[in-house]
Amino acid sequence: MVLPRQFIDELKSVVGDKWVVEDLVAIERYLYDETAPPVRPSASREIIVVKPGSIDEVANVIKIANKYRVPVYPRGGGTSLVGGAVPTKPGIVLSLERLDRIYIDVESMVAEVEAGVTLGKLIEEAEKHGLMFPAHPGDEGAYIGGLIACNAGGSRAVRTGVMRNYVLGLEVVLPTGDILKLGGKTIKNNMGYNLAHLFIGSEGILGVIVKAYLRLYPKWRYTATAVIPFNSRSSAFRTARKILSTGLIPLAIEYFDRQVIETSAKYLRVSWPIDIGQYYIMIVLAEPVEETVLVELELIDRVAREEGGLEPFVFQREDEQKNVLKIRSEIYSALKSSTFDILDTTVPIGVIDRFIEMVNKIEEKYRIWLPTYGHVGDGNVHIHILNYPNFTQDTLEKIRDEIYDIAIQLGGTITGEHGIGYTRKRYVRKLLGNTWVKTMKMLKYVLDPNNILNPDKVLPED
Ligand SMILES: Cc1cc2nc3c(=O)[nH]c(=O)nc-3n(C[C@H](O)[C@H](O)[C@H](O)COP(=O)(O)OP(=O)(O)OC[C@H]3O[C@@H](n4cnc5c(N)ncnc54)[C@H](O)[C@@H]3O)c2cc1C
Description:
Blueprint: H1 5-15, E1 20-21, H2 24-27, E2 47-50, H3 55-68, E3 72-75, E4 91-95, E5 102-105, E6 110-114, H4 119-128, E7 131-132, H5 144-149, H6 157-160, E8 167-173, E9 179-183, H7 196-199, E10 208-215, E11 217-218, E12 222-230, H8 233-245, E13 252-257, H9 258-267, E14 279-287, H10 290-306, E15 313-315, H11 318-329, H12 331-336, E16 339-343, H13 352-366, E17 372-375, E18 380-386, H14 393-409, H15 425-432, H16 434-447
Parallel strand pairs: 2-4, 3-4
Antiparallel strand pairs: 1-2, 5-6, 6-10, 7-11, 8-9, 8-10, 12-14, 12-15, 13-14, 16-18, 17-18
Helix pairs in contact: 1-3, 8-10, 13-14, 15-16
Bound molecules: flavin-adenine dinucleotide.
């Protein structure tokens, strides 16, 4: 399909010549996302990039695309790990980068943000106003639109939830070009069905998110990060569960082992400051009063020791906390170049240690290392399948399928964070069933009768 000249001219008349990019070199970076290259879908070369500067322009661009039946690929920061942002068929990449306005309503503790604001910018703006956006789904270059479209999670979902829990209101451009306004700044709103939740997590196939009202929190003034070493992995997991059952709700509880964390430290050319233990849980505490943090640290120490935990390392100075959190958060980057695929399997927290034991059996069976770490506080574990050159693609996929099978067997899901995108489409029918697929396709048809919005993603072919 060659995009008609008339179509391109109409787009230019809406956004201006400068914001319709046809030059192949300039569009190159819009053709891929963060998905590991061995599993990333290939992009079409018949692509132009359109960069509207306002919500009305987005609506008009979509109207034109719908008229010409041209696929539209909404794009945020391009940090998808499942091929969600790759334009796989000829069409337009709709980059939301120019929709970057943000307003903080301090009194209502709400951020009014356009889709192209980055996570980093939102965090910074909230902090400037003495508030906090606690969610931290990994990459601060992700855009708010993309984070909502993927219902992103991250390590801090333990206390304040995933993106869905922050969204009070949304503005969405439908695939016909109509603008739908849902909710607003209120915490409660019972006017009709909560349609916003249909679009949160819809991965760009039902509508283009252009604006959101996001709940903010007061900035917790006192924080501490405790790292507890263990010699036994099951003790580490038992401790994490027990901490949660005390009623204490940390901002995050993360798990990793020595091999994984030292790989990250080496990548950053620093050293992991803890020389005891083979397995770790890292607990981030944040409270308005210092005494509360101290009481919580005591409680955590007691629970951990009862479960065989070694001497805990408590970091209270900001630079020390930043250092250990940085080493944790760069695990992904340290492993990236040798990764075949990164998983985000999630199981009920009660069986997370069984899940890891079963993953270990797979490691033994294939004599491989499956670096495993993640958000033990909500059962969400990242496993990297490394690109062992002596393994065929089929074998690596088989390993992935075996991990997926055990997650399902234990009552979990193959994705707690990254979504279905392109790479998980093949599992949808098997795991969610024909009725799910049929229902989703009916919804898609009602909203997008010409199938222009992010076609080729999420829903399997008939
Ligand atoms: C280092 C790293 C760490 C990460 N950590 C986490 C983590 O902890 N938790 C987590 O959940 N994810 C994580 N991710 C995955 C990724 O950051 C999230 O999926 C994020 O939500 C994607 O946002 P984005 O703006 O980059 O979207 P893109 O990659 O640009 O797009 C992703 C999908 O959303 C759609 N989309 C984008 N913008 C819009 C819009 N405005 N309207 C409608 N649809 C849209 C796209 O069409 C596509 O299907 C991580 C990724 C990286 C690279």
